[in-house]
Amino acid sequence: MFALFTLVARQCGRRCGMCPLRWRRRALCFLTGSGSGRMAAASGETPVAISTPCGDRVGGMRALAPAPAGTGRISMEYQSMAGTQRVRGETCGTAVACSGSSRKEPQRRRVAGVALSALMAGLLSGCAALPAAGPTAGAFVGNVDETAVQWRDGYLLVPVDPTVLAYQQEEPRPTFRAIASRSLPSDTGIGVGDVVQVTLFEAGVGGLFSSLNAGGQGSSSVALPQQQVARDGSITIPYAGRVQVAGSTASTVEKRIVAALRDRAIEPQAVVSVAQGNSTAVTVTGDAVAGASVPIPTSGLKLLDLIARVGGPRTPIYETAVSLTRSGRTVQMPFSELVNNPEEDVYVRPGDVVLLTRQPRTYVALGATGSNNQLPLQGYQMSLAEALAQVGGLNPTLANPMGVFVLRREPGPEMLARYEGAAFERTAPGEPGATRLSGDVPVIYRFNLREPSGLIYAQDFRIHSGDMIYVATAPYVPVKQVFDALSGVVSPALSTVSTVSVAADRLSK
């Protein structure tokens, strides 16, 4: 701001008629819009008609050559801090008659000083209100060694190095194998509500289930109408009565029917099949899939096959979460993990509930990046470099490569064990100023992407769901914002100061 003040002061001095140099004998030359005006000669010298360089204000001058009465060049000398200076300059196109005295100088300086002070007060008061994308890199690091791990204002600041990468742990991955299996489940048998198809056969014509067609051909078999298993778990077989089928396999039910008809039919045989396995259905629902109840065939049904039968997810796989609920236990994972890891494609069982929802694992990018956004993580192996690439990288005109941070919550006991002695000290319980680390603590990882090693670390550092990536702005950005914000204000303000000075000069005449 001091440089900005000096620059504006110099410009104001020139606009207001104040000489930017310290003259041994000061004089004030006030120029009008045409470049002509009055100049008070130094004391003891005779006023002479001279022409000055356009816009310069000098005092204590004496002409070395007569001034022409129009446009031309002139030589003159004047006294400054550097000694006697000799100048050869262009005239302003109009000879300036130098006469009068220097009594107007204090008044003009006071007017210009008041106007300049008001202008600079407005400029300086606006610096604190400039917009910003967030805290600077210095606000994170403080005044200590930037390479040291430190506990600051409720968070742990960790500069990333090979040791940090060696200790980094992968984000916990849920697995369906905790409640399910990849092996084919055992047959649960026929259940209540299933629709059963029974076909009976006899060894010869003329038995209980024999019949003659229109051509006189005999048949020794009959297909019974489909029956739904009653709540008591039984179905009806002619001449055998109620046969218990619930909880039994089809082969077991066939044996029961044959045993019940052996004394009534001619060498009876039975074939039992499940037309609709309502009791073995699996429910698929959620806002990312068309809900349905899908029966499990005898061959079994895997999770991906089940989802495919209902049309698959309606949202992008990286934004879809799939959960499996069995026996009161639920496991949820990203759908992309289910697709990419065949070990997670387990068999479903009757009564399972599969839920597909739009629930992306995301991270947030803020600060001087290509764009501030919340984006989904693509799997569990996304690095910081890939995450920055998704938002357009660092903004080349605003970003501070030395101030790239990843904000995350880590287990407190693990951080204490890792950095005890470096950032933490054990104290007696109840000691004033001590902080008890329990649960998760905020951790800020710092990267210096100005160094080649920082780029390598960014390739190896894994981003977790819920992480925030923040890129600080470069130190010069506030200065740039000042100039950008005031570029349309300074020039009109200086013009106003000049106008005030003109008016004061005319009133004093």
UniProtKB/TrEMBL annotation:
GO molecular function: polysaccharide transmembrane transporter activity; porin activity
Keywords for this protein: Signal
Domain Polysaccharide export protein N-terminal: 185-274
Coiled coil: none
Domain called Soluble ligand binding: residue spans: 282-330
One annotated Gene Ontology cellular component of this protein: cell outer membrane
BP term (GO), one: monoatomic ion transport
Protein name in the entry: Polysaccharide export protein
Originating organism: Jiella endophytica
